[in-house]
Design goal:
This protein has helices at 2-7, 11-37, 42-77, 179-187, 222-235, 256-265, 294-300, 313-325, 382-388; strands spanning 95-104, 109-116, 130-135, 144-149, 160-165, 193-196, 213-218, 241-247, 269-275, 288-289, 306-311, 333-337, 361-366, 371-376, 406-411, 414-416, 428-430, 434-436, 440-443. It is an alpha/beta fold and 445 residues long. It folds into 4 domains: 2-77; 95-196, Translation factors (Elongation Factor Tu (Ef-tu), domain 3), CATH 2.40.30; 213-351, Rossmann fold (3-Layer(aba) Sandwich); 361-443, Ubiquitin-like (UB roll), CATH 3.10.20. The strands form 4 sheets. It has a 6-stranded antiparallel beta sheet with strand order 4-3-6-1-2-5, with helices on one face. Helix 2 packs antiparallel against helix 3. It starts with a helix and ends with a strand. The protein binds flavin-adenine dinucleotide and FE2/S2 (inorganic) cluster. The site of flavin-adenine dinucleotide has 27 residues, from strand 4, strand 5 and helix 4.
Amino acid sequence: MLESLKKIQNPFIRSVTAAATVGSVLTLVAALVIGVINGKDKSVYRFGTYSSLLGIGCGAVFGLVFTSHKQSTQDISYQQDDQTISNNKIWKDWRRFVVVRKVKESEEITSFYLQPEDKGNIPNFQPGQFLTINLDIPGQNKPVIRTYSLSDYPEICDYYRLSIKREGVPNGLDVPPGIASNFMHDHIHEGSVILVKPPNGKFVLDLQKSLPAVLISNGVGITPMLSMAKAVTQLNPKRPIWFVHGARNGKFHAFRHEIAELAQKNPNLHLHFRYSRPTPEDEGHFQSVGYVDTALIKELVEQEAEYFLCGSPLFMQSIIEGLKESGVPDDRVFFESFGKPMKVVFNSQHQTVTVGERIEEAEIVFTKSGKTINWKQEDGNILDFAEANEIYPPFSCRVGICGTCMCKIYSGEIAYQEEPTAKIEEGSVLICISQPKSSRVVLDI
Ligand SMILES: Cc1cc2nc3c(=O)[nH]c(=O)nc-3n(C[C@H](O)[C@H](O)[C@H](O)COP(=O)(O)OP(=O)(O)OC[C@H]3O[C@@H](n4cnc5c(N)ncnc54)[C@H](O)[C@@H]3O)c2cc1C
Ligand code: FES
Protein backbone atom coordinates (compact mmCIF):
# COMPACT_ATOMS: atom_id res chain seq x y z
CA MET A 1 0.00 0.00 0.00
CA LEU A 2 2.85 2.36 0.87
CA GLU A 3 4.32 1.69 -2.59
CA SER A 4 1.04 2.73 -4.25
CA LEU A 5 0.91 5.83 -2.07
CA LYS A 6 4.47 6.68 -3.06
CA LYS A 7 3.47 6.77 -6.72
CA ILE A 8 0.95 9.60 -6.19
CA GLN A 9 2.83 12.77 -7.14
CA ASN A 10 0.21 15.38 -6.11
CA PRO A 11 0.53 16.01 -2.33
CA PHE A 12 -3.17 16.97 -1.95
CA ILE A 13 -4.43 13.80 -3.65
CA ARG A 14 -1.91 11.74 -1.70
CA SER A 15 -3.09 13.28 1.59
CA VAL A 16 -6.80 12.70 0.78
CA THR A 17 -6.07 9.11 -0.28
CA ALA A 18 -4.15 8.39 2.92
CA ALA A 19 -6.90 10.04 5.01
CA ALA A 20 -9.65 8.02 3.31
CA THR A 21 -7.73 4.77 3.68
CA VAL A 22 -6.79 5.15 7.35
CA GLY A 23 -10.26 6.58 8.19
CA SER A 24 -12.03 3.62 6.53
CA VAL A 25 -9.85 1.08 8.29
CA LEU A 26 -10.50 2.66 11.69
CA THR A 27 -14.25 2.97 11.02
CA LEU A 28 -14.36 -0.71 10.17
CA VAL A 29 -12.46 -1.63 13.33
CA ALA A 30 -14.73 0.65 15.45
CA ALA A 31 -17.86 -0.93 13.94
CA LEU A 32 -16.57 -4.37 14.86
CA VAL A 33 -15.79 -3.23 18.40
CA ILE A 34 -19.29 -1.70 18.78
CA GLY A 35 -20.88 -4.92 17.57
CA VAL A 36 -18.85 -7.10 19.92
CA ILE A 37 -18.96 -4.88 23.09
CA ASN A 38 -22.38 -3.25 23.42
CA GLY A 39 -24.39 -1.96 20.41
CA LYS A 40 -26.71 0.17 22.56
CA ASP A 41 -24.23 2.14 24.68
CA LYS A 42 -23.93 5.78 23.37
CA SER A 43 -20.37 6.27 24.64
CA VAL A 44 -19.25 3.34 22.46
CA TYR A 45 -20.75 5.10 19.41
CA ARG A 46 -18.91 8.28 20.36
CA PHE A 47 -15.71 6.25 20.60
CA GLY A 48 -16.33 4.90 17.09
CA THR A 49 -16.92 8.38 15.60
CA TYR A 50 -13.89 9.95 17.30
CA SER A 51 -11.55 7.14 16.27
CA SER A 52 -12.72 7.41 12.62
CA LEU A 53 -12.15 11.19 12.66
CA LEU A 54 -8.77 10.71 14.31
CA GLY A 55 -7.89 8.16 11.61
CA ILE A 56 -8.83 10.57 8.82
CA GLY A 57 -6.74 13.33 10.40
CA CYS A 58 -3.72 11.10 10.98
CA GLY A 59 -4.00 9.76 7.42
CA ALA A 60 -4.09 13.27 5.97
CA VAL A 61 -1.04 14.36 7.95
CA PHE A 62 0.80 11.14 7.08
CA GLY A 63 0.05 11.69 3.37
CA LEU A 64 1.56 15.17 3.52
CA VAL A 65 4.59 14.18 5.57
CA PHE A 66 5.20 11.21 3.30
CA THR A 67 5.18 13.59 0.31
CA SER A 68 7.66 16.04 1.74
CA HIS A 69 9.91 13.21 2.89
CA LYS A 70 9.94 11.73 -0.61
CA GLN A 71 10.71 15.08 -2.21
CA SER A 72 13.59 15.87 0.11
CA THR A 73 15.17 12.48 -0.64
CA GLN A 74 14.99 13.18 -4.36
CA ASP A 75 16.43 16.65 -3.89
CA ILE A 76 19.51 15.15 -2.31
CA SER A 77 20.13 12.48 -4.91
CA TYR A 78 19.43 14.38 -8.10
CA GLN A 79 20.61 17.69 -9.37
CA GLN A 80 18.66 19.94 -11.65
CA ASP A 81 20.30 20.62 -15.00
CA ASP A 82 19.00 23.51 -17.05
CA GLN A 83 19.82 21.67 -20.27
CA THR A 84 17.05 19.17 -19.76
CA ILE A 85 13.39 19.69 -20.16
CA SER A 86 11.87 21.44 -17.14
CA ASN A 87 10.24 19.42 -14.36
CA ASN A 88 12.66 16.57 -14.87
CA LYS A 89 15.23 15.79 -12.23
CA ILE A 90 18.61 14.79 -13.52
CA TRP A 91 21.37 12.91 -11.81
CA LYS A 92 24.99 13.89 -11.90
CA ASP A 93 27.92 11.67 -12.78
CA TRP A 94 27.44 7.86 -12.97
CA ARG A 95 24.19 6.04 -12.10
CA ARG A 96 23.59 2.30 -12.17
CA PHE A 97 21.21 1.11 -14.89
CA VAL A 98 19.89 -2.39 -15.41
CA VAL A 99 19.53 -3.86 -18.89
CA VAL A 100 15.86 -4.83 -18.83
CA ARG A 101 15.63 -5.95 -22.47
CA LYS A 102 18.13 -6.92 -25.16
CA VAL A 103 16.89 -7.10 -28.76
CA LYS A 104 18.77 -8.03 -31.92
CA GLU A 105 17.85 -5.42 -34.56
CA SER A 106 20.03 -6.56 -37.48
CA GLU A 107 23.11 -8.66 -38.28
CA GLU A 108 25.31 -6.10 -36.52
CA ILE A 109 23.10 -3.95 -34.30
CA THR A 110 21.59 -4.91 -30.93
CA SER A 111 19.42 -2.73 -28.72
CA PHE A 112 19.71 -2.47 -24.94
CA TYR A 113 16.77 -1.11 -22.91
CA LEU A 114 17.95 0.48 -19.67
CA GLN A 115 16.16 1.36 -16.45
CA PRO A 116 17.71 2.81 -13.27
CA GLU A 117 18.52 0.19 -10.65
CA ASP A 118 17.21 2.58 -7.95
CA LYS A 119 13.81 2.61 -9.72
CA GLY A 120 13.78 6.44 -9.56
CA ASN A 121 12.60 8.75 -12.32
CA ILE A 122 14.69 9.44 -15.38
CA PRO A 123 14.60 12.72 -17.31
CA ASN A 124 13.27 13.00 -20.80
CA PHE A 125 15.79 13.95 -23.46
CA GLN A 126 15.95 15.83 -26.73
CA PRO A 127 15.83 13.64 -29.83
CA GLY A 128 19.39 13.23 -31.10
CA GLN A 129 21.08 13.20 -27.68
CA PHE A 130 23.33 10.43 -26.42
CA LEU A 131 24.23 8.61 -23.20
CA THR A 132 27.75 8.00 -21.98
CA ILE A 133 28.33 4.56 -20.51
CA ASN A 134 31.12 3.16 -18.38
CA LEU A 135 32.09 -0.50 -18.67
CA ASP A 136 34.33 -2.49 -16.42
CA ILE A 137 35.82 -4.90 -18.96
CA PRO A 138 38.15 -7.71 -17.83
CA GLY A 139 41.61 -7.26 -19.29
CA GLN A 140 41.28 -3.48 -19.61
CA ASN A 141 43.39 -1.53 -17.14
CA LYS A 142 40.75 1.19 -16.69
CA PRO A 143 37.01 1.63 -17.24
CA VAL A 144 36.02 1.80 -20.91
CA ILE A 145 33.85 4.84 -21.55
CA ARG A 146 31.78 5.22 -24.74
CA THR A 147 28.89 7.32 -25.98
CA TYR A 148 25.75 5.96 -27.70
CA SER A 149 22.82 7.86 -29.19
CA LEU A 150 19.36 7.32 -27.73
CA SER A 151 17.55 5.42 -30.45
CA ASP A 152 13.97 5.61 -29.18
CA TYR A 153 11.57 8.32 -28.04
CA PRO A 154 9.05 6.68 -25.69
CA GLU A 155 5.79 8.49 -24.98
CA ILE A 156 6.45 8.04 -21.27
CA CYS A 157 10.16 8.20 -20.64
CA ASP A 158 10.66 5.32 -18.22
CA TYR A 159 13.54 3.65 -20.07
CA TYR A 160 16.39 4.55 -22.38
CA ARG A 161 17.30 2.53 -25.46
CA LEU A 162 20.78 2.28 -26.94
CA SER A 163 21.39 0.44 -30.20
CA ILE A 164 24.95 -0.67 -30.63
CA LYS A 165 26.77 -1.92 -33.71
CA ARG A 166 29.33 -4.65 -33.18
CA GLU A 167 32.58 -3.08 -34.43
CA GLY A 168 34.70 -5.60 -36.28
CA VAL A 169 38.32 -5.31 -37.35
CA PRO A 170 38.76 -2.76 -40.16
CA ASN A 171 39.76 -4.34 -43.49
CA GLY A 172 43.45 -4.99 -43.86
CA LEU A 173 44.40 -4.09 -40.28
CA ASP A 174 45.86 -6.39 -37.68
CA VAL A 175 44.20 -4.85 -34.62
CA PRO A 176 41.69 -6.05 -32.01
CA PRO A 177 37.95 -5.62 -32.72
CA GLY A 178 35.95 -2.88 -30.99
CA ILE A 179 36.29 -3.24 -27.22
CA ALA A 180 33.05 -1.79 -25.84
CA SER A 181 30.66 -2.80 -28.62
CA ASN A 182 31.78 -6.45 -28.62
CA PHE A 183 31.63 -6.56 -24.83
CA MET A 184 28.08 -5.21 -24.91
CA HIS A 185 27.01 -7.78 -27.52
CA ASP A 186 28.72 -10.77 -25.89
CA HIS A 187 28.66 -10.13 -22.14
CA ILE A 188 25.90 -7.68 -21.33
CA HIS A 189 22.55 -9.45 -21.00
CA GLU A 190 19.17 -8.80 -19.45
CA GLY A 191 19.85 -8.19 -15.75
CA SER A 192 23.37 -6.81 -16.26
CA VAL A 193 24.16 -3.44 -14.70
CA ILE A 194 26.13 -0.66 -16.38
CA LEU A 195 27.06 2.85 -15.29
CA VAL A 196 25.43 5.67 -17.22
CA LYS A 197 25.70 9.47 -17.37
CA PRO A 198 22.65 11.64 -18.11
CA PRO A 199 21.50 12.40 -21.69
CA ASN A 200 23.71 14.96 -23.36
CA GLY A 201 24.60 16.39 -26.74
CA LYS A 202 23.80 19.30 -29.01
CA PHE A 203 22.90 17.39 -32.17
CA VAL A 204 19.20 17.77 -31.55
CA LEU A 205 16.08 18.42 -33.56
CA ASP A 206 14.05 21.44 -32.45
CA LEU A 207 10.53 20.10 -31.99
CA GLN A 208 8.98 23.57 -32.14
CA LYS A 209 9.95 24.21 -35.75
CA SER A 210 7.68 23.54 -38.70
CA LEU A 211 10.28 23.64 -41.50
CA PRO A 212 10.52 20.21 -43.19
CA ALA A 213 13.34 18.08 -41.82
CA VAL A 214 15.38 15.63 -43.86
CA LEU A 215 16.96 12.87 -41.77
CA ILE A 216 19.79 11.23 -43.71
CA SER A 217 21.76 8.27 -42.37
CA ASN A 218 23.60 5.12 -43.23
CA GLY A 219 24.49 2.08 -41.12
CA VAL A 220 24.28 2.64 -37.37
CA GLY A 221 23.85 6.39 -37.99
CA ILE A 222 20.15 5.53 -38.05
CA THR A 223 19.96 5.67 -34.22
CA PRO A 224 19.50 9.44 -33.59
CA MET A 225 17.35 9.74 -36.73
CA LEU A 226 14.88 7.19 -35.44
CA SER A 227 14.55 9.08 -32.17
CA MET A 228 13.98 12.33 -34.10
CA ALA A 229 11.34 10.78 -36.41
CA LYS A 230 9.49 9.32 -33.42
CA ALA A 231 9.59 12.58 -31.46
CA VAL A 232 8.19 14.58 -34.39
CA THR A 233 5.47 11.98 -34.99
CA GLN A 234 4.37 12.29 -31.35
CA LEU A 235 4.78 15.99 -30.71
CA ASN A 236 4.66 17.85 -34.03
CA PRO A 237 3.10 15.42 -36.54
CA LYS A 238 2.27 18.09 -39.10
CA ARG A 239 5.95 18.75 -39.70
CA PRO A 240 7.04 17.04 -42.94
CA ILE A 241 9.89 14.58 -42.44
CA TRP A 242 11.95 12.68 -45.00
CA PHE A 243 13.69 9.65 -43.58
CA VAL A 244 16.41 8.63 -46.03
CA HIS A 245 18.54 5.67 -45.02
CA GLY A 246 21.24 3.62 -46.74
CA ALA A 247 22.05 0.00 -45.85
CA ARG A 248 23.73 -2.97 -47.52
CA ASN A 249 20.49 -4.99 -47.54
CA GLY A 250 17.61 -6.00 -45.29
CA LYS A 251 19.84 -8.12 -43.02
CA PHE A 252 21.91 -5.08 -42.13
CA HIS A 253 18.99 -2.68 -41.95
CA ALA A 254 18.00 -2.17 -38.31
CA PHE A 255 14.52 -0.91 -37.38
CA ARG A 256 13.02 -1.42 -40.85
CA HIS A 257 9.68 -2.55 -39.44
CA GLU A 258 9.68 -0.02 -36.61
CA ILE A 259 10.07 2.87 -39.05
CA ALA A 260 7.56 1.44 -41.51
CA GLU A 261 5.00 1.22 -38.65
CA LEU A 262 5.77 4.80 -37.71
CA ALA A 263 5.18 5.95 -41.28
CA GLN A 264 1.79 4.22 -41.25
CA LYS A 265 0.80 6.36 -38.26
CA ASN A 266 2.21 9.58 -39.68
CA PRO A 267 1.30 10.56 -43.29
CA ASN A 268 3.87 13.39 -43.12
CA LEU A 269 6.74 10.95 -42.62
CA HIS A 270 8.18 9.96 -46.03
CA LEU A 271 10.57 7.02 -46.18
CA HIS A 272 13.25 6.15 -48.67
CA PHE A 273 15.49 3.12 -48.09
CA ARG A 274 18.36 2.64 -50.54
CA TYR A 275 20.21 -0.69 -50.50
CA SER A 276 23.64 -1.12 -52.04
CA ARG A 277 23.41 -4.94 -52.34
CA PRO A 278 19.76 -6.00 -51.97
CA THR A 279 18.86 -9.71 -51.81
CA PRO A 280 15.75 -11.30 -53.37
CA GLU A 281 14.09 -11.35 -49.90
CA ASP A 282 14.31 -7.56 -49.76
CA GLU A 283 11.93 -7.15 -52.70
CA GLY A 284 9.24 -4.61 -51.78
CA HIS A 285 11.08 -3.34 -48.69
CA PHE A 286 13.37 -0.76 -50.27
CA GLN A 287 12.91 2.05 -52.73
CA SER A 288 16.14 2.21 -54.75
CA VAL A 289 19.53 0.55 -55.29
CA GLY A 290 22.90 2.22 -54.73
CA TYR A 291 24.28 4.64 -52.17
CA VAL A 292 22.47 7.60 -50.63
CA ASP A 293 23.84 10.74 -52.31
CA THR A 294 22.94 14.38 -52.87
CA ALA A 295 21.26 13.61 -56.20
CA LEU A 296 18.77 11.38 -54.38
CA ILE A 297 18.13 14.00 -51.70
CA LYS A 298 17.49 16.68 -54.33
CA GLU A 299 15.15 14.37 -56.20
CA LEU A 300 13.14 13.61 -53.06
CA VAL A 301 13.04 17.02 -51.39
CA GLU A 302 12.24 19.98 -53.59
CA GLN A 303 11.34 22.49 -50.89
CA GLU A 304 13.33 24.38 -48.26
CA ALA A 305 14.30 22.13 -45.38
CA GLU A 306 16.68 21.44 -42.52
CA TYR A 307 19.09 18.54 -42.98
CA PHE A 308 20.30 16.18 -40.27
CA LEU A 309 23.07 13.73 -41.09
CA CYS A 310 24.63 10.82 -39.26
CA GLY A 311 26.66 8.00 -40.73
CA SER A 312 30.10 7.04 -41.96
CA PRO A 313 32.52 9.97 -42.35
CA LEU A 314 32.89 9.69 -46.14
CA PHE A 315 29.13 9.45 -46.64
CA MET A 316 28.52 12.57 -44.57
CA GLN A 317 31.40 14.44 -46.16
CA SER A 318 30.07 13.89 -49.68
CA ILE A 319 26.48 14.82 -48.79
CA ILE A 320 27.49 17.91 -46.86
CA GLU A 321 29.59 19.06 -49.83
CA GLY A 322 26.73 18.28 -52.22
CA LEU A 323 24.23 20.26 -50.12
CA LYS A 324 26.58 23.20 -49.96
CA GLU A 325 27.04 23.14 -53.74
CA SER A 326 23.25 23.08 -54.12
CA GLY A 327 23.06 26.34 -52.17
CA VAL A 328 21.74 24.98 -48.85
CA PRO A 329 22.72 27.55 -46.19
CA ASP A 330 25.20 26.46 -43.52
CA ASP A 331 22.75 26.89 -40.67
CA ARG A 332 20.32 24.41 -42.19
CA VAL A 333 22.73 21.47 -42.00
CA PHE A 334 23.42 19.56 -38.77
CA PHE A 335 25.53 16.46 -38.43
CA GLU A 336 27.03 14.11 -35.89
CA SER A 337 30.07 11.96 -36.40
CA PHE A 338 30.39 8.74 -34.41
CA GLY A 339 34.07 8.48 -35.14
CA LYS A 340 37.02 10.51 -36.31
CA PRO A 341 36.42 14.22 -37.00
CA MET A 342 35.44 15.14 -40.52
CA LYS A 343 37.04 17.81 -42.63
CA VAL A 344 34.56 20.60 -41.99
CA VAL A 345 33.13 22.27 -45.05
CA PHE A 346 30.34 24.27 -43.46
CA ASN A 347 31.05 27.45 -41.55
CA SER A 348 28.08 27.79 -39.26
CA GLN A 349 28.75 28.80 -35.69
CA HIS A 350 28.69 25.29 -34.28
CA GLN A 351 30.80 23.71 -36.96
CA THR A 352 33.65 26.15 -37.48
CA VAL A 353 37.23 24.98 -37.14
CA THR A 354 38.86 27.35 -34.69
CA VAL A 355 42.51 26.47 -34.69
CA GLY A 356 44.14 28.81 -32.18
CA GLU A 357 47.61 30.27 -32.51
CA ARG A 358 50.04 27.47 -33.05
CA ILE A 359 53.18 27.05 -31.08
CA GLU A 360 55.85 24.56 -31.98
CA GLU A 361 56.87 23.35 -28.53
CA ALA A 362 55.55 23.43 -24.97
CA GLU A 363 56.03 21.90 -21.57
CA ILE A 364 52.99 20.03 -20.27
CA VAL A 365 52.73 19.30 -16.57
CA PHE A 366 50.43 16.36 -15.77
CA THR A 367 50.03 17.02 -12.04
CA LYS A 368 48.17 13.86 -10.96
CA SER A 369 50.57 11.62 -12.87
CA GLY A 370 53.60 13.55 -11.59
CA LYS A 371 55.04 13.91 -15.11
CA THR A 372 56.36 16.99 -16.93
CA ILE A 373 56.95 16.28 -20.61
CA ASN A 374 57.97 18.35 -23.63
CA TRP A 375 55.35 18.46 -26.35
CA LYS A 376 56.03 19.20 -30.02
CA GLN A 377 53.61 20.15 -32.79
CA GLU A 378 53.89 16.69 -34.39
CA ASP A 379 52.74 15.05 -31.12
CA GLY A 380 49.17 16.09 -31.96
CA ASN A 381 46.42 16.64 -29.44
CA ILE A 382 47.04 16.47 -25.70
CA LEU A 383 45.09 13.21 -25.28
CA ASP A 384 47.18 11.41 -27.91
CA PHE A 385 50.33 12.88 -26.38
CA ALA A 386 49.37 11.77 -22.87
CA GLU A 387 48.66 8.22 -24.05
CA ALA A 388 51.94 8.08 -25.94
CA ASN A 389 53.60 8.84 -22.60
CA GLU A 390 51.72 6.18 -20.68
CA ILE A 391 49.22 8.53 -19.09
CA TYR A 392 45.66 7.35 -19.68
CA PRO A 393 42.98 9.98 -19.05
CA PRO A 394 39.34 8.94 -19.59
CA PHE A 395 37.94 9.52 -23.08
CA SER A 396 35.09 8.39 -25.28
CA CYS A 397 34.37 10.15 -28.57
CA ARG A 398 37.81 11.76 -29.13
CA VAL A 399 36.08 14.40 -31.23
CA GLY A 400 35.01 17.00 -28.67
CA ILE A 401 31.40 15.82 -28.44
CA CYS A 402 30.96 13.90 -25.20
CA GLY A 403 33.00 15.85 -22.62
CA THR A 404 34.54 12.70 -21.10
CA CYS A 405 38.14 13.95 -21.50
CA MET A 406 37.43 17.30 -19.82
CA CYS A 407 40.02 18.23 -17.20
CA LYS A 408 40.99 21.30 -15.15
CA ILE A 409 43.69 23.59 -16.48
CA TYR A 410 45.69 25.23 -13.67
CA SER A 411 47.88 27.48 -15.79
CA GLY A 412 48.74 28.16 -19.40
CA GLU A 413 46.48 28.18 -22.44
CA ILE A 414 45.35 25.67 -25.02
CA ALA A 415 44.08 26.07 -28.59
CA TYR A 416 41.23 24.00 -29.95
CA GLN A 417 41.87 22.24 -33.24
CA GLU A 418 38.16 22.33 -33.96
CA GLU A 419 35.03 23.80 -32.40
CA PRO A 420 34.12 21.77 -29.29
CA THR A 421 30.57 20.46 -29.18
CA ALA A 422 30.55 19.43 -25.51
CA LYS A 423 29.62 21.92 -22.80
CA ILE A 424 32.90 22.92 -21.15
CA GLU A 425 33.03 23.90 -17.47
CA GLU A 426 34.86 27.06 -16.52
CA GLY A 427 38.59 26.47 -15.95
CA SER A 428 38.46 23.17 -17.85
CA VAL A 429 39.53 22.02 -21.31
CA LEU A 430 38.82 19.12 -23.66
CA ILE A 431 42.15 17.47 -24.30
CA CYS A 432 41.04 15.28 -27.23
CA ILE A 433 40.82 18.23 -29.63
CA SER A 434 43.33 20.67 -28.21
CA GLN A 435 47.01 21.44 -28.10
CA PRO A 436 49.15 23.88 -26.08
CA LYS A 437 48.94 27.56 -26.97
CA SER A 438 51.38 28.75 -24.30
CA SER A 439 54.88 27.48 -23.59
CA ARG A 440 53.76 25.81 -20.31
CA VAL A 441 50.45 24.15 -19.60
CA VAL A 442 49.53 22.63 -16.23
CA LEU A 443 46.71 20.11 -16.26
CA ASP A 444 44.89 18.14 -13.57
CA ILE A 445 45.70 14.77 -15.07
C1 LIG B 1 27.94 11.10 -30.05
C2 LIG B 1 28.18 9.66 -30.41
C3 LIG B 1 27.10 8.82 -30.55
C4 LIG B 1 27.30 7.47 -30.91
N1 LIG B 1 26.23 6.66 -31.06
C5 LIG B 1 26.40 5.37 -31.41
C6 LIG B 1 25.28 4.50 -31.59
O1 LIG B 1 24.12 4.89 -31.44
N2 LIG B 1 25.54 3.21 -31.91
C7 LIG B 1 26.81 2.74 -32.08
O2 LIG B 1 26.98 1.55 -32.36
N3 LIG B 1 27.89 3.55 -31.94
C8 LIG B 1 27.72 4.84 -31.59
N4 LIG B 1 28.81 5.64 -31.40
C9 LIG B 1 30.17 5.07 -31.50
C10 LIG B 1 30.59 4.47 -30.15
O3 LIG B 1 30.73 5.51 -29.20
C11 LIG B 1 31.91 3.71 -30.20
O4 LIG B 1 32.88 4.56 -30.75
C12 LIG B 1 31.83 2.44 -31.00
O5 LIG B 1 30.88 1.55 -30.43
C13 LIG B 1 33.18 1.73 -31.07
O6 LIG B 1 33.62 1.48 -29.77
P1 LIG B 1 34.40 0.13 -29.41
O7 LIG B 1 34.93 0.26 -28.05
O8 LIG B 1 33.58 -1.05 -29.75
O9 LIG B 1 35.58 0.16 -30.46
P2 LIG B 1 37.08 0.64 -30.19
O10 LIG B 1 37.78 -0.31 -29.32
O11 LIG B 1 37.06 2.06 -29.80
O12 LIG B 1 37.67 0.47 -31.66
C14 LIG B 1 37.06 1.14 -32.75
C15 LIG B 1 37.55 0.52 -34.05
O13 LIG B 1 38.97 0.72 -34.16
C16 LIG B 1 39.62 -0.52 -34.46
N5 LIG B 1 40.96 -0.45 -33.86
C17 LIG B 1 41.37 -0.97 -32.68
N6 LIG B 1 42.70 -0.70 -32.49
C18 LIG B 1 43.10 0.01 -33.58
C19 LIG B 1 44.34 0.57 -33.99
N7 LIG B 1 45.43 0.47 -33.24
N8 LIG B 1 44.38 1.20 -35.18
C20 LIG B 1 43.29 1.32 -35.95
N9 LIG B 1 42.10 0.81 -35.63
C21 LIG B 1 42.00 0.17 -34.46
C22 LIG B 1 38.72 -1.56 -33.88
O14 LIG B 1 38.89 -2.81 -34.55
C23 LIG B 1 37.34 -0.98 -34.15
O15 LIG B 1 36.90 -1.29 -35.44
C24 LIG B 1 28.62 6.97 -31.09
C25 LIG B 1 29.72 7.85 -30.93
C26 LIG B 1 29.50 9.17 -30.61
C27 LIG B 1 30.68 10.09 -30.46
S1 FES C 1 36.68 12.33 -25.49
FE1 FES C 1 34.71 13.13 -25.93
S2 FES C 1 35.05 15.26 -25.75
FE2 FES C 1 37.01 14.45 -25.57
